[in-house]
Amino acid sequence: MQSFFYFAAHMFNFFKKNKIVVAIDGYSSCGKSTLAKDLAHKLKYVYIDSGAMYRAVTLYFIWNKIDITNTSQIEDALKKIDISFKRRRGHNSCYLNGELVENDIRSAEVSDQVSEVAALSIVRRKLVTLQQAYGVSKGLVMDGRDIGTVVFPLAELKVFVTADVDVRAHRRYSELKNRGNEIPFEDVKANLEKRDHIDSTRSDSPLRQAEDAVVLDNSNLSPAEQLEAVYKLTKMYL
């Protein structure tokens, strides 16, 4: 049923050339969230971090000691979870049941468990429904792992972002260090490789490049350079 409403909404908005949906997918710590945020700001679009939604669910499971092998526990927990985004100090921030959790969801503990939680079909079904609802009116940039393949398969522009694993690990390591989390570089890299494997091999909505996606390797690009490259692509649809 959710797919019917998504496709119906897409057809309703078919002739609205002034607004589009931009789907950005890619590996962990490849800079896709930075790109999505910057692009949404430049286009004056809504930005949704789908990864933050899965992190928020993971955080709730950790705080409430939910056994992810227990379907009934998960079903009950999902009914009690409300995820929202609000502008705070010029940036989008994630709220879990009304509580600001932007920093909490970026912790190493959440990072270590989020891929396993995101692999659960019951979790994905709930969040995909919410994500598709955000895109009904278009004018949206969303990043994640399955945005162009599952959430918005009819998105006007799909970008698949990638980068060398060592480059990604150094980016993540610097991000954690700046937040006061002292974690060995090798542990950070191992976590990324583990998440890449889980995300790419899960049975439900695995991470993969959509056939019509534009591939962007930003290993040697600055945030400004990658933004400019993708912004030029959006001009084809606006």
What is this structure's SSE topology?
Blueprint: H1 2-12, E1 21-26, H2 32-43, E2 46-49, H3 50-63, H4 71-79, E3 83-88, E4 91-96, E5 99-100, H5 108-118, H6 121-134, E6 140-144, H7 147-151, E7 157-162, H8 165-178, H9 185-201, E8 214-217, H10 223-234
Parallel strand pairs: 1-6, 1-7, 2-6, 7-8
Antiparallel strand pairs: 3-4, 4-5
Helix pairs in contact: 2-10, 3-5, 3-6, 5-9, 8-9
Description of the molecule:
A five-stranded parallel β-sheet has the order 2-6-1-7-8. A three-stranded antiparallel β-sheet has the order 3-4-5, with helices on one face. The protein has ten helices and eight strands. α3 crosses α5, α5 runs parallel beside α9 (185-201) and α8 crosses α9. The protein starts with a helix and ends with a helix. The radius of gyration is 17 Å and the shape is globular. The protein has helices at residues 2-12, 32-43, 50-63, 71-79, 108-118, 121-134, 147-151, 165-178, 185-201, 223-234, and strands at 21-26, 46-49, 83-88, 91-96, 99-100, 140-144, 157-162, 214-217. It has one domain: Rossmann fold (3-Layer(aba) Sandwich), CATH 3.40.50. The protein is an alpha/beta fold and 238 residues long.
